[in-house]
Amino acid sequence: MLFDIHPKETIDSLYGRDDDLSHLINHIENRRWIAILGTRMVGKTSLLKAGKSKIEQKKIPVLYINLWGVSSIKGLLGGIVYAINDSLNPVKKFKRYFNQINGIQVGPLGITIEKRKEPLSLTSEILSVLGNNIDELVIMLDEVQELQYVTAHLVKLLANIFATLPNITFCFTGSYFGLVKSLLEPRFDSPLYGRSPARISIRPFIRDVSSNFLIAGFSENNLRILEKDCDEVVDKFNGIPGWLTLYGNAVVISRLSHEDALKYVEKEAFKIQRSVIKHYLEGRNSKLHMTILRAVAAQSTWADLKGSVKAVTGKTINDATLKNIIDALTSSFLIEKTNSIYHTIDPVLRRFLLRGNLI
Ligand SMILES: Nc1ncnc2c1ncn2[C@@H]1O[C@H](COP(=O)(O)OP(=O)(O)O)[C@@H](O)[C@H]1O
Ligand SMILES: [Mg+2]
Fold first, then answer.
1. Are 47 and 160 contained in the same domain?
2. DSSP letters of 4-44?
3. Residues of the chain with confidence (pLDDT) below 50
4. Ligand 1: centre distance to CA 2 (Å)
5. Mutate to test the pocket of ligand 1, among 141, 245, 265 (most ligand atoms within 8 A of CB)
6. Cα diameter, the chain
7. Which of 29, 38, 83, 294 qualifies as a cystine partner to 42, CB 3.0-4.6 A?
8. Which domain covers residue 287, as residue numbers?
9. pLDDT tens across 9-55, in order?
10. CA 148 to centroid of ligand 2, rounded, Å
11. SS3 label, residue 111
């Protein structure tokens, strides 16, 4: 169902992403590692999970791991163990191999790990066991930027897998910053140098696709959306499938009126944007980043941005610092530049930032 608010898990429910999906499958079939990039709610997880179902139809096993909020290798290991128990039937298939690993127990419900074992080497051993005993394995790490504090460990682990287990293919999603940048543009001294994954950048739907998505979702439920309502939704939530889905769900499933549904989506979307911005500001100079973000929301040129910083902080920002901040915001898929004007990608984020109290 198109208006299901969970990430889509089947090809049939993934709308308007045929090209992205075929790129994903194609790369996986060629054992090329892939990074799926894009703004929040644009459909990265849905693409990944629809891809998972398609790959599984070809009898290739897939481990899907959601890393949101996971910041350590121990957390990654926990996610891998969960995914193995969920999708690989380890008790039947790999019991004797896992039993050989010191620190792992195989019980009736799957594998468990001993708390005291060092997580990095255990992760590496588990992946070796799988890679050496399965013809082909795909591992999907959703929101991999969460592991940025352990970048060096992760890059080493991945480089080792790349070199020794060519039958394991990784797919990543995340913001193009920090860790993801280290994966996509490894420096010459990085163990991943020359091995960077292919990129799939997911764009918001164009206008026509947004309208057709809404029409198709209504029609699935034997309903029709008025043209003027459809135009208004598309104007307000331009191209972000997550907001369009939430609107459709509110009208079709929760039976809200068009006006109430618009208000509801705006409110829910603001909550999500608040958490996105909060997360983005962690460990950063929030005053400066927020000043620039707000100026971007009002659509600014480079000179406008410098003027805004001066007006708010009383200080002149130098070009290098401004460039760093703009790069960070762009890489996190919060903003982009069109014809020398910086603006937010998501119109909801623009409205959220231009309101008064934020965080
Ligand atoms: N191509 C699509 N077709 C149908 N629904 C989609 C599509 N892309 C995203 N959605 C819906 O939008 C919401 C956000 O999608 P999700 O995959 O979680 O985005 P992301 O991982 O980029 O934040 C979910 O409710 C999902 O069902
Ligand atoms: Mg996601």
1. yes
2. -SSPP-SSTT--S-HHHHHHHHHHHHTT--EEEE--TTSSH
3. none
4. 9
5. 245
6. 67
7. 38
8. 283-354
9. 999 999 999 999 999 999 999 999 999 999 889 999 999 999 999 99
10. 17
11. strand
Ligand 1 nearest-atom number relative to CA 2: 4
Q: For residue 173, how far is its CA from the centre of ligand 2 (angstroms)?
A: 8
**355 CB burial (10 A radius; 0-12, 13-18, 19+):** exposed
Judgement on whether residues 91 and 218 belong to the same structural domain of the protein: no
Give the residue among 146, 152, 143, 192 at the shortest CA–CA distance from 172: 143
Q: What is the CATH number of the domain that holds 166?
A: 3.40.50.300
Ligand with smallest separation from the Cα of 6:
1
CATH number of 244's domain:
1.10.8
Provide residues with CB under 6 Å of ligand 1: 2, 4-8, 14-17, 38, 40-46, 241-242, 245
Q: How far apart are CA 319 and CA 280, in angstroms?
A: 21
Element (H, E) at 198: strand 198-201
Q: What is the pTM of this model?
A: 0.92
Residue nearest atom 24 in ligand 1 by C-alpha distance: 7
Question: How far, in Å, CA of 184 to CA of 194, rounded?
Answer: 10
Q: 192-229: per-residue pLDDT in tens?
A: 888 889 999 999 999 999 999 999 999 999 999 999 99
**What DSSP designation does 300 have?**
B
pLDDT at 283: 87
Please indicate, yes or no, whether residues 154 and 96 belong to a single structural domain of this protein.
yes
With respect to residue 8, please indicate whether it lies within any of the assigned structural domains: no
Which CATH number goes with the domain that contains 296? 1.10.10.10
Q: Which H/E stretch holds residue 245?
A: helix 241-252
Q: Atom 25, ligand 1: which residue's CA is nearest? A: 5
Asked whether residue 215 falls in the same domain as residue 193, the answer is no
Does 325 fall in a domain? yes
Task: In whole angstroms, give the CA distance from residue 76 to residue 154.
Answer: 10
| Domain tally, the chain | 3
Taking CA atoms, 121 is separated from 36, 80, 81, 168, 282, in Å, by: 27, 13, 14, 17, 29
